[in-house]
Amino acid sequence: MIILSIETSCDETAVAIVEFKNGGAKVLANIVSSQVKMHSKFGGVVPSLASRMHLKNITSILERAFRNAKISKKKIDYVAVTNGPGLIPALMVGVGAAKALAYGLGKPLIGIHHIEGHIYANWLKKSDAKNNKLWEAEFPILCLTVSGGHTQIILMKKDLNYKVLGETLDDAVGEAFDKVAKLLELGYPGGPIIEKMAKQGDEEKIKFPRPMMNSGDYNFSFSGLKTAVLYEVQSCRDAASMRLYNDQYKQDVVASFQKAAFDVLVSKTIKAAQKHKVKNIVLGGGVSANKKLQKVLAEAIKSDLPLCGFSFPTSKLTSDNALMIAIAAYKYVEKNKGIKNWKSVKADANLKLR
Ligand code: KG4
Ligand code: ZN
Hints:
Layout: E1 2-7, E2 12-21, E3 24-34, H1 36-40, H2 47-69, E4 78-84, H3 88-105, E5 109-113, H4 114-120, E6 132-133, E7 141-146, E8 151-156, E9 163-167, H5 173-183, H6 190-198, H7 223-238, H8 247-275, E10 280-284, H9 291-304, E11 309-311, H10 323-335
5'-O-[(R)-(carboxyoxy)(hydroxy)phosphoryl]adenosine (KG4) is lined by residues 10, 147-149, 174-175, 177-178, 189-192, 195, 285-287, 289-290, 319-320.
């Protein structure tokens, strides 16, 4: 069975073609065209520009995907697309293209929630073209999804079954990384830059708050942490003769910020995993690329939940891509759920996970 998938919820135009056979996935094409260079000039994603770029590129990326896959369009069995959440002008391009393809090919269309794509990125342990066996995961699973738009703790009792136990009440953790990088004038996107710089810094140097760490629920708040970084940096700049606003100082700031953010993420994830006696913890979303987060979470699981498994996506599948959307769509086909006519799938910027 061959699935063609499209992802355009933010600033990557992505198309994948994947053949699923005997519990394995053969990646025939996996193209991600990033607009990050263009948006970095503005310090963040500009929705109207993102949409214009998706529109400009989507047809040629689809053509390239078919060329890479070396299959005719007729071989496609299902079309899948991220239909939310995300930037509506960006989502509409992918959904429009997917509808046109499903209509033209006379094939069913499957709408996928962006976050369930990030979760199912964990089911493919290698993102290459071989026939990789998909993960036969043991449930219940606890997911920590951390991206530029989301920070959620989700309980899965079985495939495609989601209960959001907690989420951010304001900024997403990736957004906090991007904003901290912006106020220190480090560039965009902030996450990878901060991760690299933090390696040279002292994470104990500045005592930033751990917002909502002991709130007794699984919600998060990162806006106060970002403001604490702003006040710290402002006070250092105001007292320039007293303290030095130099590279070492910035490295200490980002290392201390990163530690504060990860302490909260790890602490809440462990508490939720203990409460729900999960068999596995999975990490997903752009921030899951962070090796330090992977390490501190792995260490906490080893010490507090030694029998619990831990998974994070392969490096190519942490950020937005269409391959993860194809894997989630395959799960829908397996369960005979969510398979729709092209007319019934709509882009929804605020789509809820259910
Ligand atoms: O999932 P993603 O590619 O797009 C959204 O769905 O939002 O996530 C992008 C976010 C950005 O905020 C980016 O700064 C963050 O993921 N990110 C990281 C790292 N790589 C990307 N954050 C921390 N450390 C990283 N290495
Ligand atoms: Zn994402």
